Amino acid sequence: MGKLKLILKRKKSQAWGADLMVAFVIFSIGIFVFFLYSINAPTEAEENIDALFYEGKIIASSILSEGYPADWNSENVVTAGILTDNKINETKVERFYNLAQADYAKTKRIFNTKYDYYFFLDRNMAISSGEIEGIGKPGTVKDNINALNLVKVTKLTIYENKPTSAYLYIWEE
Length: 173
Prior knowledge:
Elements: H1 2-63, E1 83-84, E2 87-88, H2 90-102, H3 104-110, E3 116-127, E4 130-136, E5 149-159, E6 162-172
Antiparallel strand pairs: 1-2, 3-4, 3-6, 5-6
């Protein structure tokens, strides 16, 4: 009987040792994954912001150009620009606004971006149907954008023969 108790104690202790080893392996994997994630997470956020700044600068420069062709319309537009002779052209503003309202996805393809954007000046712009706050994602209000990462690009331009600040918000949802 004494030998049987000794054998049973050994088997129980061996099973307990195996459980401890499995738990240690699982714990080690968890710690490794945590540290791997925590090391890479800040880098990914910085890369996202850098990508947004880069694309924002390109889109703002495209909008504040003459566009291509110079007298573009919604049918032949390659680059949607709103300037003529380095000043904002109200006709091109209206074309760009109408294009963004009718086919926002097309404007994103023109700018070759996956991000949403909203372009506006430090004052409202005039088109034939009235004043508009800005141009971009339909339904966007410049003071109320719900975004994961939001970048603001600022450029100087001329509107109605006065120096004006132009802003582009670009974000990912």
